[in-house]
Fold this sequence. Notes:
By secondary structure, the protein is an alpha/beta fold. Helix content is 43%, strand content 21%.
Amino acid sequence: xxxxxxxxxxxxxxxxxxxxxxxxxxxxxxxxxxxxxxxxxxxxxxxxxxxxxxxxxxxxxxxxxxxxxxxxxxxxxxxxxxxxxxxxxxxxxxxxxxxxxxxxxxxxxxxxxxxxxxxxxxxxxxxxxxxxxxxxxxxxxxxxxxxxxxxxxxxxxxxxxxxxxxxxxxxxxxxxxxxxxxxxxxxx
Length: 188
Ligand code: 5GP
């Protein structure tokens, strides 16, 4: 799939930075875009739907997919596995879409290594206070999970300079417009 690099857009950012909101706005405003649906071993949160937000798998099923080379990349984040499915991405590209991958930093680095032409964007929270407040407001994670996510966030932010672009989510409308402009300008 190396010639398909130009159809891949990798979006990362700490949990709570607002990347899912930005990406869902991008998908709503531009029908050229399609979201890669990853597989994960974590449990569904809130109103998440299997096959729409993620394919929710048992650890056993996830490991068997690794064995079968079903992933373009996969990574462990906290205590769960997450992976980009080859079949899912290939299908979307065949449908003529620019595929957006919302993945953590190790997976993003792997995608850049495999597909150097892929565009990478890091969504940055305006401050660490804002990030912590957003995570606490969600009220879907335990205190332990929040602390783990804040700790991972620090490491992730330290790797933001590896990305082609950093978009600061200080104002949602502005950040969405900036991300959209970057993708349109660079993905020909
Ligand atoms: P969450 O549990 O908040 O949905 O996701 C945790 C982290 O895993 C987020 O940074 C998310 O972007 C990342 N993630 C989701 N899917 C994938 C994937 O397929 N591969 C990798 N490497 N990370 C993923």
